[in-house]
Amino acid sequence: MTPDAGKGSARKARRIAWRLPPRWVRRVLFAPLLVAVAFLWLPFAVWGVVIIAGIVAWALPGRLRILRVIFMMGLYLLWDAAALVWMFVLWIASGFGYFMRRPWFQRAHYRLAGTMLGSLFWAARWLLRLEIEVEDHEANLHAHGQPSIVASRHAGPADSFIIVATLINRYHRAPAIVLKDTLQWDPAVDVLLNRLPTRFVTPTRQGKGAVGGAAAIGELAAGLQGDAALLIFPEGGNVTPRRRTRRIAQLRNAGHAELADRAEAMGHVMPPHAGGMLSAMAAAPQAEVIMLAHTGLERLATVGDVWRELPVDKKIVLKSWTADPAEVPAELRAREDWLYGWWEKIDGWIDENQPAAPDSTKASGKPKPQENSALTDSPE
Q1: Greatest CA separation found in the chain?
Q2: Which of 82, 135, 198, 227 has CB 3.0 to 4.6 Å from 143, enough for a Cys bridge?
Q3: pLDDT (tens digit, 9 = 90+) per residue, 311-323?
Q4: How far apart are alpha carbons 14 and 19 in whole angstroms?
Q5: In whole angstroms, what is the distance from residue 131 CA to residue 337 CA?
Q6: DSSP string, 156-193
Q7: Residue 339 and residue 172: Cα distance in Å, rounded?
């Protein structure tokens, strides 16, 4: 067997090993097991350690990284289990799932998502010293009976959850989202988002008939109404230097030298995929288009970066703009240029609103991008 064949077999083995189990396995085995671990199996002494770790980490000065990690892990486990129990009650109340798609039960699940995310970020605020601020001069994200397409940059750990929590709790929107299917390994995320307007896509397009990001976005956009907000990330994943370099090279190889030059000039973002955005706008012409930028999670590229930064002590700032419908071109290629123009504006805003960098990074100018993909337009 040749070395290349051996490598191919190894890659195939890894894909098989991590393939997502069937839904019935996740429901019957994973979800009850997590609840049992959180409420029954874990000794009370362990929960005592978690609580003490949280109190000590909050009360005493210094980093105390391990105590913060212990508390956040215990809190997340309890958070996941509580959500599963509550969704089990809703499943029974909905006639064992028969009325689950009715508007009341959909609103109940959005309220649950808002409550759970709000509680998680409440803990993060006082334990990790994480602050979230929204520049809301236009108030364009507020619910006012018209659906929206919200296109956001994608950078930093958990930025997608911060945006979803903001849409639900601050602006009373009902997000519809496209996610990588690997997020279904989390039992609570799996159950909750499979009951809400969500499309899961396979990053490697494995499997016969796998749905791509652009097609999934178009399907969701076609059903937008009321206060729904379709949240998409045109970059396709969190920004990393290697991914950004590869995207620019792909543009050049495809003969798009002008777009590649524009992408190289944008130091904080990656060149956006136009496919998902154009599919959404075509499927939901009645929806207003909102562009969203955020900054504050720069320099958190890896698990090691997060560990070194604990407590993260970050201020995350979100800024949104409403695209003028009169400025949206009709021709597809012109719309791609229009999207690049918005991404250049987002990159400029990020450059002007960078958090104060430590001495080790000031000399290097723009901080390096991050990698922690959660929501995607065109998964890789």
Answers
A1: 64
A2: 227
A3: 556 778 889 999 8
A4: 9
A5: 34
A6: STTHHHHHHHIIIIIT--EEEEEEEGGGGGSHHHHHHH
A7: 27
SS3 at position 316: strand
Global pTM?
0.76
87: nearest Cα among 233, 196, 209, 8: 196
Helix 241-253 vs helix 257-265: crossing angle, to nearest 10: 160
Edge-to-edge strands, sheet with 288-295: 130-135, 314-322, 288-295, 148-152, 228-232, 174-180, 198-201
Please give the helix or strand (H or E) that residue 133 lies within, else none: strand 130-135
Contact indicator for 358, 312 with CB cutoff of 8 Å: no
Quick one: tokens of 170?
A: 């601050």
Distance CA 361, CA 302 (A): 16
Looking at this protein, which amino acid is placed at residue 33? L
For 337, counting Cβ atoms within 10 Å of its Cβ (0-12 exposed, 13-18 middle, 19+ buried), the class is: middle
How many Å apart are CA 5 and CA 60, to the nearest integer? 55
Return the structure tokens found at 311. 């407590």
* Amino acid identity for residue 289 in this structure: V
Whether residue 223 contacts residue 216, with contact meaning beta carbons closer than 8 Å, is answered with no
Rounded Cα gap, residues 331 and 336, in angstroms: 9
- Integer Cα distance of 47 and 38 in angstroms: 9
Q: Do residues 347 and 183 touch, judged by C-beta distance below 8 A?
A: no
- pLDDT, tens only, 11-41: 544 444 467 888 888 888 888 888 777 766 5
d(CA 267, CA 365) in angstroms, rounded, equals 10
Enumerate domains of the chain plus CATH numbers: 101-362 (3.40.1130)
Residue indicated by tokens 């699940």: 109
